[in-house]
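Q: Sequence in, structure out?
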Amino acid sequence: MRPSFALAAASSLALLTCTPPSMGPVLSTVIVGQCAYTGPQSRVPECKDYLGAWKSADAEKDCQTLKGTYQGGILCAPEVSLGACLFGTKPEQNRTYIASGDTQKCSGARTGCEVFGGGYWQPSSLCGGVSDELVVLENAWTAPERVCFVPDGGPRAAGKTGELCVLEGIHGATEEGRSFRQDARCDNSRSGRPYYAVDPSPRVTMADPRRQDAGYLAEEAWVRSQIDATSCVCCHSDAAPNAQAAIFNIDRAGSLANQFTDRGIAHGAGVVNSIPLGGLPPTQNNGFSKSDLVNPDHSIFLTTDPARMKRFWQGELDSRGLTAQSFVGVPDGFGPLSEQLYFKPQACAAGEGVAADGTITWGKGKARYVYVLPAAVRFSPTIFPNLDTPAETLWKLAVPATAAPLASRSVKYGVVPDGMAQQVPASGAPPALSAGTQYYLYVTADQMLPITRCLFTAK
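A: Exactly. Output:
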């Protein structure tokens, strides 16, 4: 299993840490209750214990968000499990069991717990010794395809003839006025971040007097059409799996804006940026763009008219009595995407780094990507399409999805093993490392699955 997350799910997550505690936490003996549910990411039965300072009502509400069954006063007792993820840093403590006997998921369960959840993984006897090393052998990330075709009917942008090319992936867009769900395959577009449904804001049932305003409805219809032209429609419409959309559904009757929380509206208005989600420049995406490193104050929604899109959502902020000041200090809500993008490395553990002869040593795991960057890099590498390779990267080695990942000490800086690909620089050798200078070693088992992220001093 390759743990990941949907864009929609990420927008509802709290900021998480990617560094698990070095020792397992001691959990409280106060039992509040338990929740049995199907894991939205693992897609297998899970069971969550609520311990310590949880209030019963809050525990039950948390269970409802997981679409689970809550029972107060008892603990989980799964007949079989891969282990449990322990969360003991807050007074409201949890222990979540992965109730599966599929040992092929041991590594994924540990990664989901420690890398994406910020917990401490306690393997069962089924996973004893299996989860020590982070390795992705199957379903490694592959870049989405750009499909080109000659449209048969349907609207085309003015003056457009011949082929239309669409990126079948996150942030992809067809031409304005067309539908991405018809021009591309949504299953391919969701593949980078597995999907699960999330309920809309409780505001969704509120009456909205603006629905009597023809001008407002016209702008709302334009916003819906912009979303329909992009890959967002694959998770946020009836095109979602089982027609169960994540957070909002552009096909749902009634107010679109009322499906969003306040922070969601702020993302739409560009008051809270969505840089960690990544993005493409409009020149590569049929004129559509979103908030990114170049234009951080743009909307989270892909659009051909950033100013118009922002105005619509700014109007919603105004109607709720909210301003930019309302969101000062509010986390962006993108969880691991944000944590990893803004991660600040510390000194490497003993033995890790690049030796005088160029040999690279990293922690427990086998690598699909190896980076060497300046110590003062602005962002850490994260995701396609524009955040997986920081501009400052000195050297990046990539292992094809069909090839076996690399073991520590099997690679030398600037040397490309047979069958591998040097992505940075595009050709030729990388700059020599300067003795006594500090550099950043970043090694991952796959995109967003870091093994080692640390600073070393060149020998």
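The chain has a mean pLDDT of 89.
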